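Handout for the seminar on molecular recognition.
Each group receives one record of this type.
Step one: identify the two inputs.
Step two: read the structure output and locate the region that could contact 1-deoxynojirimycin.
Step three: write two sentences on what you found, then compare them with the reference statements printed after the record.
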Amino acid sequence: MEDKKWWKQAVIYQIYPRSFQDSNHDGIGDLKGIIRRLDYLSLLGVDAIWLSPVYRSPQDDNGYDISDYRDIDPMFGTIEDMEALIEEAGKRNIRIIMDLVLNHSSDEHSWFQEAKKSRENPYHDYYVWRDGTPQDTPNDMQSVFGGSAWEWVPEVGQYYFHQFSVKQPDLNWENEKVRRELYNIILWWMEKGLGGFRLDTADQIAKDPDLRVTNNGPRLHEFIQEMSRETFQKADLVTVGEAWGADIERAKIYSNPDGSEFSMVFQFEHMLLDQQEGKGKWDLAPLPFLRFKEVLNRWQTELFECGWNSLFWNNHDLPRIVSRWGDEGRYRIESAKMLATLLYGMQGTPYIYQGEELGMTNVEYDIEEYRDIETLHMYRERMEKGYTRQEIMHSIYAKSRDNARTPMQWNEEENAGFTEGMPWMKVNPNYTEINAKQQIKDEDSIYHYYRRLMALRQEYHVFSDDRFQLYLPEDENIFAYSRKNDIRTLLVICNFYGG
Ligand code: NOJ
């Protein structure tokens, strides 16, 4: 009866390789840098590391635009470095999870270079093309990073579809040859001994632009099931699909315990609450606390025994949780610990995003210091629309993806010990106060708190196995719940007063 999947007991640490540890002084983090820091992660007690993409890429979207799926970008190292990382991590019982970006490739991928040569080219149908005229796009769909989702290619007299930047053309999953190519890539990486994959924008692969459908397209689950059967199910992997469009019913299908799709999905219902109704992430609103409790309660209760949750506050696209829903000032340490407790007591697989275990905070930089394509697009767009600079910067400080992407704060030396070169992105000036070296020395630090929480999760099965019950659903300050089995009750009480 007991389902002993390793990833149900595991804690997964996300590394954003550019910002983690530089080893060759070019100001950009790399694989050798990660290897150097494995002991740090081992001491923390993580079971697996999810790496944001390190494949060869022109870096238009920091690696989420891949030009060669079977190679490592020279800025991060080589294939041999990747193999060394898998091996060194393995020695410490840490598995490596790679990011798979299969909804789109880079426009510099050889497939796309061929595809745009002519309509007859064998690779043409690897992408999503529609007829039109240079003046008239197939429809008015917009890309996530701003501007039309269609780009005209005069050589073929057609538009290609891109849900993200113009340099990220969407792959055509309707084409069986494309799917085959992608599965072969997955199998190739599996042979290297990976522990699993995180599937980027997994719910957008089956898009249908004629129906204006991006996520949850008609053939989505058919494609995922096929991919899972042809690849993941051949080994003992953890797989997690990114699915902004997932509701609970869909999450049950994605994370069906029969293993037909993924182990779990990243769903974002709780992360979308502090924005204005019907608007986007930049249109800020306070966190509606009762709704927040209701949402987490619903996911905990309804997926129980018929699916599996991922637990996270942070990733490379989200602002720092202690700044967002905690107190980054006086009660930074207390609120970081509270937020960790709230999340890690729940059922699911917890993810820590680099620096979260130190209580790293958001930044407030001049616009010139920002690097993120989404932030910069929004800035230009809103300036043109007449928003004030102050309004725009207010949103950026709260929600820019660069909040998560500032270099990891290792110590109080120059550039926080991240690089001896010029960092690709400015280090948060609070690194002299918030850094790993100092927290490792202090048994009472956020770092050690996370370490102890993880150890508890591994020791007591009540964390992974047992039912969630919410208390005081109408209380405006307290988030309280229990997890319970015959032997043990875990009671979590968090006081958000003043938050
Ligand atoms: C989701 C990734 O998390 C994000 O960083 C990226 O920009 C988009 N997918 C496009 O790949």
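Reference statements: Residues 54 and 281 are 27 Å apart (CA to CA). The pocket of 1-deoxynojirimycin is lined by residues 61, 64, 101, 164, 200-201, 242, 316-317 (CB under 6 Å).
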